[in-house]
Amino acid sequence: MAPSRGRFSPLQKALGITPARLSDNLWRLEANGLLVRLSAQERRHPALPEYLLTEEGEQLREAARAMQLTEQRLGLGRLSAQAWNMPLLLALHYGHERFQQIGKALDPVTPRMLSARLESFQQLGTIHKALEAEPRPTFLYHLQATARAPVGQFALDLESLA
Q1: Mean pLDDT by 10 residues, the chain (162 residues)
Q2: What single-letter DSSP state applies at residue 50?
């Protein structure tokens, strides 16, 4: 919010969305305790709506920044634009390597969605899939070396916010 200073019109222009969409988004953020609407006395201009992030909103912004940095470090585009991508990478980072383990860690992800995300990351070269024959055949999933450092840093960044 800093570049647009929390005012409605600059926010709308910076985000490139319709006023109705921004108004709905701001209302939802406020309803969830992430944002407060300043009173007329608190604003820099009494007639212009102005918003401020709450402490929880600030933490969420820092988490979003950490996610953005991780996406840049991985160089795979906006991974966060698709559901389960970032949580899947974190699950692998934390040592969940079997399909069932990953699924339990990411509950309520569906097996179909998890399969699709794992396949996508394999094609991108972010995840390695290996067959383990003993005691019964199963596949193990691991982060490739190029993804370990960025995902590890992302995990540390998120832990520092807790």
Answers
A1: 66 90 94 90 76 93 96 96 97 98 97 98 97 92 98 98 86
A2: B
> Under DSSP, is residue 98 helix (H, G, I), strand (E, B) or coil?
strand
Establish how many alpha carbons lie within 13 A of residue 32's alpha carbon, considering only the half-sphere containing its beta carbon: 11
Q: Are strands 127-132 and 138-143 parallel, antiparallel or unpaired?
A: antiparallel
Q: Which two tokens stand for residue 47?
A: 């007639």
What is the reported pTM? 0.83
Phi, psi of 49, rounded to the nearest 5 degrees:
-60, 140
Q: Measure the CA–CA gap between 16 and 31, rounded to whole angstroms.
A: 23
Q: Which long-range contacts (CB under 8 A, 24 or more apart) does 8-16 make?
A: 8/48, 8/49, 8/50, 8/51, 9/48, 11/51
Contacts for 129 with CB less than 8 Å, ≥ 6 apart: 118, 122, 139, 140, 141
